[in-house]
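INSTRUCTION: Work out how this chain folds

Token vocabulary: learned, describes local backbone geometry

RECORD BEGINS BELOW THIS LINE
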Amino acid sequence: MYRAIDSFPRWRSYFYFITLIFFLAWLVKNVFIAVIIETFAEIRVQFQQMWGSRSSTTSTATTQMFHEDAAGGWQLVAVDVNKPQGRAPACLQKMMRSSVFHMFILSMVAVDVIVAASNYYKGENFKRQYDEFYLAEVAFTVLFDLEALLKIWCLGFTGYISSSLHKFELLLVVGTTLHIYPDLYHSQFTYFQVLRVVRLIKISPALEDFVYKIFGPGKKLGSLVVFTASLLIVMSAISLQMFCFVEELDRFTTFPRAFMSMFQILTQEGWVDVMDQTLNAVGHMWAPVVAIYFILYHLFATLILLSLFVAVILDNLELDEDLKKLKQLKQSEANADTKEKLPLRLRIFEKFPNRPQMVKISKLPSDFTVPKIRESFMKQFIDRQQQDTTCLLRRLPSASSSSCDHSKRSAIEENKYIDQKLRKSVFSIRARNLLEKETAINKILRACTRQRMLSGSFEGQPAKERSILSVQHHIRQERRSLRHGSNSQRISRGKSLETLTQDHSNTVRYRNAQREDSEIKMIQEKKEQAEMKRKVQEEELRENHPYFDKPLFIVGREHRFRNFCRVVVRARFNASKTDPVTGAVKNTKYHQLYDLLGLVTYLDWVMIIVTICSCISMMFESPFRRVMHAPTLQIAEYVFVIFMSIELNLKIMADGLFFTPTAVIRDFGGVMDIFIYLVSLIFLCWMPQNVPAKSGAQLLMVLRCLRPLRIFKLVPQMRKVVRELFSGFKEIFLVSILLLTLMLVFASFGVQLFAGKLAKCNDPHIISREDCHGIFRINVSVSKNLNLKLRPGEKKPGFWVPRVWANPRNFNFDNVGNAMLALFEVLSLKGWVEVRDVIIHRVGPIHGIYIHVFVFLGCMIGLTLFVGVVIANFNENKGTALLTVDQRRWEDLKSRLKIAQPLHLPPRPDNDGFRAKMYDITQHPFFKRTIAVLVLAQSVLLSVKWDAADPVTVPLATMSVVFTFIFVLEVTMKIIAMSPSGFWQSRRNRYDLLVTSLGVIWVILHFALLNAYTYMMGACVIVFRFFSICGKHVTLKMLLLTVVVSMYKSFFIIVGMFLLLLCYAFAGVVLFGTVKYGENINRHANFSSAGKAITVLFRIVTGEDWNKIMHDCMVQPPFCTPDNSTYWKTDCGNYAGALMYFCSFYVIIAYIMLNLLVAIIVENFSLFYSTEEDQLLSYNDLRHFQIIWNMVDDKREGVIPTFRVKFLLRLLRGRLEVDLDKDKLLFKHMCYEMERLHNGGDVTFHDVLSMLSYRSVDIRKSLQLEELLAREQLEYTIEEEVAKQTIRMWLKKCLKRIRAKQQQSCSIIHSLRESQQQELSRFLNPPSIETTQPSEDMNAINQDNSAQPETSSQQQLLSPTLSDRGGYRQDSADAGKPQRKFGQWRLPSAPKPISHSVSSVNLRFGGRSTVKSVVCKMNPMSDAASCGSEVKKWWTRQLTVESDESGEDLLDI
């Protein structure tokens, strides 16, 4: 990058390399880790399904054995291995089992570790074998030998070696006993001495459990270590056979050298040097083959092998499915317990005596005494009066239903405590009524289903595969019927024995579910009670302590000034997204901008802008332009302090400082705000003119650099990042202890073996220390590969330097501190090759094993532990760590559905004209594959450099022009086929149009100019075109979505990294702004300004030679010029400051923050990576739904009316199909759920998709506790309302038939009266009377008229639901009074008269009595009245509704 900066514009180099590192090193590379983790987890799930769950972990101190019980059976009995089995006296056995003995041994181990860590190099003349450290080692060895003998005496040898811990102790005893032998002291047996520190893990139970969790099931981790070692051996042997004959290449001459070279490639440290040296040695002919060989090995080792270690560690941290559910319940219960207690800063008021506020009444005569009444007691009456007034307004006829509901909700919220008391008194009655209603409705539903099955309505149809919606619906119906029905309802007398056995098994199967439901409801009630108790405690403190909830104990609780401050502090932009009446979602054009504006309050927005401006001003500061001497920079300082003073005063007056419920200092963020403010205020008031190095003023300037951290407190998402960073601090701390233990073991070993042996004379011709004196001439070379041609007798340029016997510049093992620093640098895989080469060259080749073992353990296990722990903590914070496999799939499905969007694909033209043919061509798979091949072919043109001076460039550009015209033709065909508006709906089409337009512009400029800039533009167009191919393949699209969604979700983490980097950059300018140039501090990489410091820190984030930069900043006299007056006049560094600065930055950024990116990528990859067997809804299901939605949503608005949902559900096929013959009730439930969502308003794409997803999974397995309760309550409400509506429709049909019969009887009476009048007139006027017989068709006509309502009802395809508006209109048209639908009144149309033809009858004298008797026989009024009263009584008894609406509905019946 530095070479590119010197050769090209700086912005081009920075942009290219930073984006390259971000996308390839941080995103794409981590996708491989996600792939391996998900694949490993999938394989583990499959093996668990085949072989069962993993075995439970048992303690190392206990074992299980089979023993025969009294009944003759066998059972597993736990056997304590610490049980006395030896011949020692009882007192010694008791002492051995006591905790005092164990603590004494562990304390002796700690003292031994401290003594070993205190060892250091004392010089060549010091006798090392019989010093005080050797005598101490002999004493400790004897002590631990006696401990082992005592345990063997007490437990017996068999009982002693049965424990793995005792085996390890025995190994240490034997090894350390051999180590104190004088000839073996300070040899390879030193490992046994330093490994005693591992016994200290027993001190902390948390650390012991963590170590056992990681390394306890050692089969997988041990197998992976063996596989890695085998791979290294095999690849080393292959490389040895391939390159051993190559001359001038000494890296593969022997097997140890080949092994070290292949191990170096595995660790990525200097692997390019190995490959370059091999390529130069083999020649140009075999160079491509050798390069491919090394690159493939490097990619496999770094991307797959290291990811396997992460996957194994994550699998070891994974819990069993049953334990996850148990921990979910325990965690919910623990959260309920924590919510009950008030924080300590509020509970301090309980220590003071109660002083409640009394009512003060003024303007009363002195002789009239008023008893003392609490003010809170009077407020209850005031609140109750307000509540009564609200309820009175709600009952007025003019008040709408929505306003009534709103006033009711507000009254309940204001008097929640009273409402809770009232709920307790009526809870049992309401629960009993609900249970009766639920049982009755379930009984009706089961009876209807049984009747349909017995009637054979499903017979005669071809059998086909049931959809997942149907399967889950029947599972829920069976579960509810078995759970809510009694045994008498489920088991009848006539059932067979097999049926009874099956019913009993079903009852037993769902009894556990009932127990789980009770536990979940108990936890939910406990949470509600905890919240209520917490609020009651706050109310009691507010009532009994007048200074409670008073800012600074001065401002009153309801003071006008405090209310004004609250309004200012809490004011924020709030754009209403839903209609307040219907609840429908509004489609706002700038909803993303509105969400951003409503993210924080207006006051926080002002402070964010002020803080950013202040940070920009600090970026202009440098050691040569200081804020103390630049008035323009002081303006931003004054503005920041003034604005922050106003902000803190407003927040303190509104919420209090410390002793209030919503105080400013209630968490770490508030403490950080006050600290940053005090530091800024002190610096502004002090403004020191002279700042000496390593002084308090310089420390104050460093603390001032923490100002960008204010953004973490002001932005909620940034606070979430901080919580994710520090919530897993316990596990990160445990991993740090393990790595420190590993470093301490190897550091102690290195001190005892390498102390003083790494020093060498700087003159390469001098070997002994006695000869290392005087001066010598050192040659100066400009470059390693530059050979200067010298004349005869001419010498190379150089200068004279004194000879010095010294250690290597960057590391040594003379004491434990320096050794641990060197090993920490090695742990980051930076500089370990140099350490290895120095040890091999100066101590011996056999000691190269030391550094290789440490690198393998530290890199393969230690660093992957950080990755695994950070990912596990991230999942735990996100709530996915304790999720079962089904729950995790459900969460992935929900996240995937949020990303899904309508297709935006216009339909095919109706006719078969030119547009329809174009549409068929552009949508054909062969056409799409051809375009993809053409894109790849155009991208191949970039494999040759486009240089304006090269004649090959012109043909390449011409071919690119041809491809561009082909893509123009493609876009034109799509626009013709889809129309311009339809083409513009798809984002992919927009991107293709943009790239094609750029290509056309490039073609014009290319033929007009023909220079280097047009060729560069053409190359950029080809690169942009190449990205369009990612959306044309499923796998590529999945990976692209993973990267894109990871970038979106990791935005705030990246911003947090930049803020931390900015703080360290400001501090680096203060600490190392004037450090002299060294090996890596140069004109490109230095801390002279904030911009260059950011560049250096970004380089450190990638891990590139960060340790060398740290050592350059540690330079001390006599290698620099000190100055005690001001820090900007010296060129020396700061040893302690550089050590803390660079180590802390590298740990936070490289080990924690970057691993958060890995966790996000793993999480997002699981959203899109799923097999057909693993996923709940496949991509084909989503694609089919998108196509059906595209057919229904003809306006392409993303919303459809509610009545169109029925047509959409009927069009679905495959796994989302709803069979109207088998699942008619499910269809009603789904339609009513959509109508209920927005009160009959329009529904969106995601609303319908979410409903289908809930209906397609087993909610008992997939949903978490709170979500499960809410969903079951919703589905029960839907079933109840649909059942009510179905029964109501059935009753209306019954009443309709009765009214039809009544109208028929009335028409017969009317016709009889007319015939009677005619007969009387004929009897009086004509001379003769004609008698006729009743017509034979009269009964048939009456039967047809009576059967007419039933026939009309059978013409409907479905039973009326809330979504079937026609059924309402048809039913209400025959009613004689107003009907109501959806909470509104609607007057029915006039009833249609029913015509009847009645024949004449033969009348005689006395015929009036005959007619009367006929009318009495044919009139069904009495039967109708009795039937209606019975139906009304049954309806009232079974489905009593508590609300006013239900009561009115009952009156309508």
Summary: DSSP finds 54 helices and ten strands in the chain.
